[in-house]
Specification:
Layout: E1 2-4, E2 9-11, E3 23-26, H1 32-35, H2 37-42, E4 65-67, H3 83-86, E5 106-110, E6 116-122, H4 142-149, H5 169-186, E7 197-205, E8 209-217, H6 220-257, H7 259-267, H8 272-305, H9 311-338, H10 341-344, H11 365-375, H12 377-402, H13 405-408, H14 414-420, H15 423-450, H16 452-460, H17 465-499, H18 504-513, H19 517-523, H20 525-532, H21 536-541, H22 555-577, H23 579-588, H24 601-605, H25 608-621, H26 629-644, E9 648-662, E10 668-672, E11 679-685, E12 696-703, E13 718-723, H27 736-745, E14 753-758, H28 764-767, E15 774-787, E16 792-802, H29 819-834, E17 838-845, H30 853-861, E18 869-876, E19 883-887, H31 902-911, H32 917-920, E20 923-925, H33 931-940, H34 950-963, E21 967-969, H35 980-984, E22 989-995, H36 1012-1029
Helix pairs in contact: 6-9, 6-12, 6-15, 6-17, 8-9, 8-22, 11-12, 11-17, 12-15, 12-17, 12-18, 15-17, 15-19, 15-20, 17-18, 17-19, 17-20, 22-23, 25-29, 25-36, 29-36, 34-36
């Protein structure tokens, strides 16, 4: 075998001088003939024929190869992997490179001289040290890797963190936490590959040319999302700035428009402080009303989008709006109240100004526009800033969309970022631009109203309407141009600060945006028309032009008010109750609202939280295994719960295939099975003596199968231990030593119990004490509760779920055999309250981890089930799943999604569950006079059903679909297949097992991973299946 080392590269210039494209040169590390062939020859003994090598001696090596000779071995092919099946769709920001599994992508772009050539796809050759690495030819296990390379067999370990479905801050923190824990526990170097991105890299290969390859950029997603977050923050800041300035401008314009009112109030005797308080309180009230309306609109949008409201942000915005509105008006209020009434009531706004540079401008349309803007330069500057904020936002957003390279360099996430520019980003941009347009239009309109007498005088002096129109349009164009230019500069600088560069495309976008005078002129159209329509005679004569049209009919005002009230009511209802009011309005209006998805009555009947409470209680007890105290306590809990529902509950004890040896003083010496090894292959006890409160104990009598059998009287009240150290096939000749023992002594058997051990590495002779060794056979129990049916009491359905768990991998049994019990207890509660159409037996099984003993003992206790048995339903791993597996279906995919091999399918089709035959001979009843005949019958029995009845499977799948639960047929869907014992006995049986939780049974199988909604949906399917099987 050849062990490869790393490749070596050095940075070189790109053949076309493109600095943005990473270019490397692959360094040669010798030739095959120099470095590899001598190593291979050193392992060949003299006299062997020379190996035929397909790789020429002059073939270059681009990575070192070290030859070594592993111990002799043979390959056992168990299947093949398909990359198409591995390459599942991924969120671009949570992309995880598949490393060795991915076919290498290499394209020749330039020849050795750097001249472009027709692109050619390159593939790996036979040389394992070639320039293009080969995908693996075979995958094997960790044990095999240690066999080949010893303890230092692993170069890298890929750890996949469960529950990661997308690139979110929570998921990033979860992955980083796991990586940090790995470093702390092992000291290993850890690279986080989630959120990586492929990038194109040009590699110069000697003798080939420049080859484009796909490399992986670690942390690309973090860099990109960091840029996106910065961009989002900047965009939001621009929008808030524009909105804040607009609010301030609106407040100032409100005060300016009421100049005559303020002067009149002061003229009739109002004190300055009273006028100030009156104006300020009115503005604050308007601000509060606007904040309330904005809050309702925000809540309505949150409800409509199905989001959770962020109350601190909504509350902060609601308080900030009126505060900003009031503070913005302080200065204009102070200026307005300080003016004498005579000045405030004077018509026009022209006051004497000092001569200056602007005074030297020619009296033209453009000059008049500039004079006016300069005369009100504070107001003009405010409008320019509002426009600049909107333009800056637009420039930055457009630059991000058009030119992605500034943010992403050469990674291939550009398309994703283009998609990350969400519609709300464009809405922000349009809002900011709309704010600028409104600010220009509103300001110019107020200015036109202030300058009515000025325009009347100009008309009287001979100016045409078009002259006044152009004057106001020039003002709008100037404001738009100044704001566009400033905004373009600021937007380009903001983009540069985030992206790190300012490409020509971004500069082009900024230059285009600087031409904001066009839409500034558009915003001035209406004020310009108002200025042109000023009637000189009426204005200069002092007549109130607004009264010329006579009294207006108030109907339109009532209509607008009524529509506003309806809109306000709809906003309030939506903010409080979500989509329902909108759907109702659409329905009444005949638009046809989309109905909200309805919850199936079965899901409403059961409670996932109640089921979760049962799982939590079982987990609190600790690992429930091999008849320990936690398992006993779990049985007590399940018994108490079923009894509290008013059900008929029975306890059915049975012996476990577990024994403990103790010395004469009762000190434990050894348990079998245990971590030290060993297993109980056969057990024979008197079932009439089995008591759940008392294990079976007795003195040990160790028998040698090669020696003559002892006299029967020497075995009275003894527990016989048979140890078979000679290898034989226990599947083909099940429990042979135990059968030989029973056949030799016959019924009645002299001994109290017999145990057949497979010692592995154990030596019982060293354990047995001269003073006498005792052995204890542990007892477990099944809990069986019965609920009589209402409509069809003669028909039965059995629900079963194991409650012990396999603790060998550190699991505490949450999803592994805890969730199934939680669902079983919840279904039992609901059926006890509502009644069942058929008789239901709820069976909580023990012994599932010692050879499916619980299901076997349950069947033996009910060997003659009702002929009206509708079916048996097994429940497992229902607390954290992606879909429900329903089985066993012979030709369906396995739990891993792979189709079973054809030879396996044919074997099961011929012999059913015949592989369980050994288990049916592993526990025998010494109190049965016909035991030897029973053994013969079991040896000759068929393997039962090869799969679950198709009609029952189809009905279960149909029920799951009707409840809205994803379910699929599976080949052996459960990890602990207790239900197979019933298929072996040709009883109609199916199982519901959750698919998707690979951590079940491990130390990470904790109650925190259990999802109440998963328990609820599984319980709903079971409940509905019972209802439909019963004809309801």
């Amino acid at each position: 075998m050849l062990y490869p080392g790393p490749m070596k590269y050095e940075v070189v210039a790109h053949p076309t001088g493109d600095d943005e494209y990473p270019t490397l040169q692959l360094l040669s590390q010798g030739t095959w003939g120099e470095a590899v062939s001598p190593q291979i020859q050193s392992f060949m003994e003299e006299g062997w024929r020379q190996a035929t090598l397909d790789i020429p001696a002059e073939a270059p090596l681009f990575r070192p190869l070290t030859a070594f000779q592993p111990p002799p071995f043979l390959f056992k092919v168990v299947g093949s992997y398909d990359f198409a099946a591995l390459a599942a769709p991924q969120d671009p920001l949570s992309y995880v490179p598949l490393g060795i599994y991915e076919p290498p992508l290499a394209t020749l772009r330039y020849n050795d001289q750097g001249i472009p050539v027709e692109p050619v796809r390159l593939t790996p050759g036979l040389n394992p040290a070639g320039s293009i690495p080969r995908p693996p030819l075979a995958l094997t296990t960790l044990e095999a890797a240690e066999f080949f390379r010893g303890e230092a067999a692993i170069d890298a370990i890929r750890v996949r963190v469960g529950g990661i479905e997308g690139y979110t801050p929570e998921n990033v923190a979860k992955v980083e936490r796991v990586a940090r824990e790995i470093v702390e526990r092992t000291g290993l170097h850890v690279d986080i590959v989630a959120g990586s991105s492929p990038r194109a890299v040009l590699v110069q290969v000697p003798g080939v040319g420049y080859v484009e390859q796909r490399w992986t950029t670690l942390g690309a997603a973090a860099q990109i999302t960091g840029g996106i977050n910065a961009a989002n923050f900047t965009l939001l800041a621009c929008l808030l700035l524009a909105s804040g300035l607009y609010i301030g401008n609106a407040a100032q314009l409100s005060i300016l428009a009421r100049r005559e009112e303020i002067g009149l109030l002061k003229a009739v005797g109002w004190h300055t402080s009273h006028v100030r308080a009156y104006l300020l309180s009115e503005l604050l009230l308007l601000g509060l009303l606007g904040a309330a309306l904005a809050t309702l609109m925000a809540l309505a949008l949150v409800r409509l989008l199905g989001l959770e409201p962020l109350w601190p942000i909504i509350g902060g915005a609601a308080l900030l709006a009126p505060l900003l509105y009031g503070l913005s008006a302080l200065y204009p209020i102070q200026q307005a109240v300080r003016r004498p009434p005579t000045e405030a009531l004077r018509q026009g706004e022209v006051r004497g100004t000092q001569a200056g540079q602007l005074g030297a401008l020619p009296l033209s349309l453009f000059g008049l526009a500039v004079r006016h803007l300069w005369r009100r330069r504070t107001r003009t500057l405010l409008i320019v800033l509002i426009v600049a904020a909107g333009v800056a936002l637009s420039v930055m957003l457009a630059a991000v969309v058009v030119q992605l390279n500034g943010l992403l360099r050469v990674t291939l996430l550009g398309d994703y970022v283009a998609l990350s520019i969400r519609p709300y980003h464009y809405l922000m941009m349009l809002t900011a631009l709309a704010v600028g347009v409104l600010a220009i239009g509103e300001t110019l309109l107020v200015s036109v109203l202030e300058r009515t007498r000025e325009f009347a005088v100009l008309r009287a002096l001979g100016w045409q309407r078009v002259h006044l129109t152009r004057t106001v349009l020039w003002e709008g164009v100037l404001i738009g141009a100044l704001g566009g230019l400033l905004g373009a500069i600021v937007g380009a600088l903001l983009f540069w600060s985030i992206a790190g560069s300012l490409p020509p495309v971004a500069l082009g976008v900024a230059a285009l945006a600087s031409l904001g005078g066009a839409w500034g002129g558009g915003a001035a159209l209406y004020p310009a028309q108002r200025a042109a329509r000023v009637p000189p005679a009426q204005v200069l004569s002092g007549a109130d032009e607004r009264r010329r049209g006579g009294p207006r009919h108030p109907a339109w005002r009532w209509g607008v008010g009524f529509a506003g009230l309806l809109l306000f009511a709809l906003l309030v209802a939506t903010a409080l109750w979500g989509n329902e009011p909108v759907n109702r309005v659409r329905e009444v209006a005949g638009i046809g609202a989309t109905p909200a998805p309805t919850v199936h009555p079965a899901q409403q009947a059961v409670s996932g939280e109640r089921a979760l409470a049962h799982v939590e209680r079982l987990v609190e007890l600790g690992p429930r295994t091999l008849g320990n105290e936690a398992q006993v306590a779990a049985a007590e809990y399940i018994h108490a719960q079923l009894t509290s529902y008013g059900l008929q509950v029975e306890r059915e004890p049975f012996p476990l295939r577990m024994v403990t040896f103790s010395d004469a003083a009762g000190v434990p010496l050894l348990s079998v099975p245990s971590e030290e090894g060993g297993s109980v292959r056969g057990l024979a006890v008197n079932f009439d003596e089995v008591d759940v409160t008392q294990p079976i104990t007795g003195t040990v009598m160790l028998l040698d199968t090669d020696a003559p059998w002892p006299a029967p009287e020497t075995l009275v009240d003894q527990i016989v231990i048979i140890v078979e150290e000679k290898p034989f096939n226990d599947d083909e000749d099940p429990n042979r030593p135990m059968r030989d023992l029973l056949a030799h002594y016959g019924y009645p058997f002299p001994f109290r119990a017999a145990v057949y051990l497979w010692p592995d590495e154990l030596s019982l002779e060293e354990v047995l004490q001269p003073g006498g060794t005792t052995v204890c056979i542990m007892i477990a129990e099944n809990i069986v509760a019965t609920l009589p049916g209402q409509e069809q009491p003669d028909q039965e359905l059995w629900l079963m779920a194991p409650y012990d768990n396999d603790a060998s991998r550190g699991g505490v049994g949450a999803d592994d055999n805890g969730s199934g019990v939680g669902v079983l207890l919840e279904v039992a509660r609901v059926l006890a309250e509502r009644g069942s159409p058929v008789t239901v037996r709820f069976v909580a099984l023990a012994g599932s981890t010692t050879g499916l003993q619980g299901s076997m003992a349950h069947f033996l206790a009910h060997e003659s089930p009702s002929e009206q048995l509708l079916g048996i339903v097994g429940l497992q791993r229902l607390g954290a799943w992606d879909e429900l597996g329903v089985g066993h279906v012979l030709e369906a995919p396995t739990r891993d999604g792979e189709l079973p091999p054809e030879q396996v399918v044919e074997m099961i089709r011929e012999d059913g569950q015949g592989f369980l035959r050994t288990l049916w001979l592993s526990v025998l009843d010494l109190s049965d006079p016909q035991l030897l005949s029973v053994i013969d019958e079991r040896l000759a029995s068929s393997g039962g059903l090869s799969e679950s009845p198709p009609q029952l499977v189809e009905q279960a799948l149909a029920v799951a679909e009707s409840v809205g639960v994803p379910a699929t047929p599976r080949h052996y869907p459960c990890a602990t297949p207790d239900y197979l014992m019933y298929l072996y006995q040709e009883l109609p049986t199916i199982a519901f097992c959750g698919i998707g939780n690979d951590l079940a049974g491990t130390e990470y199988d904790t109650v925190e991973r259990i999802q109440p909604i998963a328990l609820q949906r599984a319980a709903a399917v079971v409940y509905q299946l019972i209802e439909e099987l019963g004809g309801r």
